[in-house]
Amino acid sequence: MPQSWSLSWLTVPTPLPSGPMHIAVTPLGVAAAGYGGRDGETPPCTDPAKVTAVTERIGAYLAGRTRELGLPIDWSLSSGPHRTVLRTLREQVPYGRTITYGELAARSGVFEDVTEPGLAARTVGQMMAANPVALLVPCHRVVAADGIGGFGGGRVGIDVKRWLLTLEGVLEPTLDWNGPL
User: Fold this and answer.
1) What's the fold here for domain 78-167?
2) 11, 64, 164, 168: which one has the fewest Cβ atoms less than 10 Å from its Cβ?
3) What positions does the domain Methylated-DNA-[protein]-cysteine S-methyltransferase DNA binding occupy (predicted)?
């Protein structure tokens, strides 16, 4: 990221099991997004248009009123193969669909020379855990070949993944579902 640019932060309330999201913006767009608010991130975003756009679009998405966030992404916190895999996910796995770690590895083209069984899939799992723009690049849509797979943040992280996959219609709502119908 150019040194003249700095991240400014905002916290967006959500119905997610993790609570609010913390979002960092630059002049190019959203550079970082994570689950669980972090009060006191500095510097705070003081641009009312950015705060409104990010808050309203994430709110509409999580309320089931839209399937697209429509927020620009500043890709400067990812590079090389990581960025290629994230872009492949964002561009090729739409709302309501999932892809396995291995399928995403193959589709990205990044791992063509990898011959060790399972290495590409495991590496994609690590890349998803290091996704700087969670939700905007929907790492919750990447699942294991034999189940839901992991998600950063331990038990709460898995609950967030299940919540998002339920919102998108991939999973059936459970009795404790607190999202939109």
Assistant:
1) Arc Repressor Mutant, subunit A (1.10.10)
2) 64
3) 83-170
